[in-house]
Amino acid sequence: MIKRFLESYLLRDARHYPVLTLTGPRQSGKTTLARATFPSHRYVSLEQVDQRRFAREDPLGFLAQYHGPVIFDEVQHVPDLLSYIQGAVDEAPSPGRFILTGSHNFLLMSRVSQTLAGRCGILNLMPFSRAELEGQKQAEPDTAAGLFSNRTTRLNLWQTLRTGFYPRIHDRQIPPAVWFPDYIHTYLERDVRSLSNIGDLDVFERFLALCAGRSGQLLSYSGLASDCGISVDTARRWISILKTSFILFLLPPHHRNFNKRVVKSPKLYFYDTGVLCQLLGIREATQVVSHPLRGSIFENHVVAEVAKAYLHHRQTPPIFFWRDRTGHEIDLLIENANRLYPVEIKSGHTMSPDMLDGLLWWAKLAGLPPDVGTLVYGGDEAFTRNKVPVRPWFAV
């Protein structure tokens, strides 16, 4: 088993909370991590029809079976069970008593916040980060600059972007072109239907592909709705579903405007570039190199890796972007202790001087030195140019 950074935080929080909730996308490794971290806990899968029926029909009788610590897997199938777990921990609040896992963030977390507030630690597990996949250490991101400190990799950039980071692909050496169609089909058939009453899944799948084509771009609900032939309200609801099931996330614009008008729309990113490439029709790694959206795919990778670095260290990602209405933009802004750390992201394998233009312009506008930020590019070397740290694609 590949070691997950979140394991140490699970162990830490299990000493303080009677309930832990581990959530994340389907097939991100939640069950494997929970069982490996707590091997002495009993394990119950609420995916099993008999267990699910028992828990729904007689929740008190169901819980009465478990006097010691227990893992309830896919607990979102029986959301009412959380109310009874609340009663159980109020009577006996021993730390680490219940470990809950679930794939539907909104449905699960709305119930957790209603019934288990103050009793439950909440952790998010995404697919592997690159550092986890390669067995490398990653320090807790207490400083933004520390995120971009790695210097080695055994991976190929374009193959990595196409393959993505879902554990099953790497554990079983399944070709991504084989695994992802089944994953997306299963997601549509199971998760989407359980989250929302969507009658025509073909339309939703087309909407998903349209979102992929807008990765790294400003989100326009009206544009998506028009291209897909749906209402704006439906587009908003479907984006919410994709966020709820951890397929994509929205990067908000930073509020600081430096006396200029800034855009207010968020940018759209996928948590995994393997899913993104599949939806874009990319089947082989060589296609990524010449794809019209190569820059967006690469940017998506870097932004998602930064997000995972925070999530897997039990922190909310303090990440934004900045763009004014004259076209000036910083791809990624990391906020740390009220300080902003700008990051420019370029997919080119060879660094060219104009890659620094945005960073140098922003630093001057903000009244900060040039070394305030970092350029992440598609090359393999780390160096400094015009006082700006330049880091390879595998730095985070």
Topology at a glance:
Blueprint: H1 6-13, E1 19-23, H2 30-37, E2 42-45, H3 49-57, H4 59-64, E3 70-73, H5 81-91, E4 98-102, H6 105-115, E5 120-124, H7 130-133, H8 157-163, H9 167-171, H10 176-195, H11 201-212, H12 221-228, H13 232-244, E6 248-251, E7 267-270, H14 273-279, H15 285-290, H16 294-311, E8 319-323, E9 329-336, E10 339-346, H17 357-366, E11 374-377, E12 383-385, E13 388-391
Parallel strand pairs: 1-4, 1-5, 2-3, 3-4, 10-11, 11-13
Antiparallel strand pairs: 6-7, 8-9, 9-10, 12-13
Helix pairs in contact: 8-14, 11-12, 12-13
Overview in brief:
The protein contains 17 helices and 13 strands. It is of the alpha/beta class and 396 residues long.
Description of the structure:
The chain has 17 helices and 13 strands. It is globular, with a radius of gyration of 22 Å. With 396 residues, the protein is an alpha/beta fold. The chain has helices at residues 6-13, 30-37, 49-57, 59-64, 81-91, 105-115, 130-133, 157-163, 167-171, 176-195, 201-212, 221-228, 232-244, 273-279, 285-290, 294-311, 357-366; strands spanning 19-23, 42-45, 70-73, 98-102, 120-124, 248-251, 267-270, 319-323, 329-336, 339-346, 374-377, 383-385, 388-391. A 6-stranded mixed beta sheet has the order 8-9-10-11-13-12, with helices on both faces. It has a 5-stranded parallel beta sheet with strand order 2-3-4-1-5, sandwiched between helices. A two-stranded antiparallel sheet has the order 6-7. The chain has 2 domains: 6-124, 3-Layer(aba) Sandwich (Rossmann fold); 130-391, no CATH class. Helices cover 41% and strands 16% of the residues.
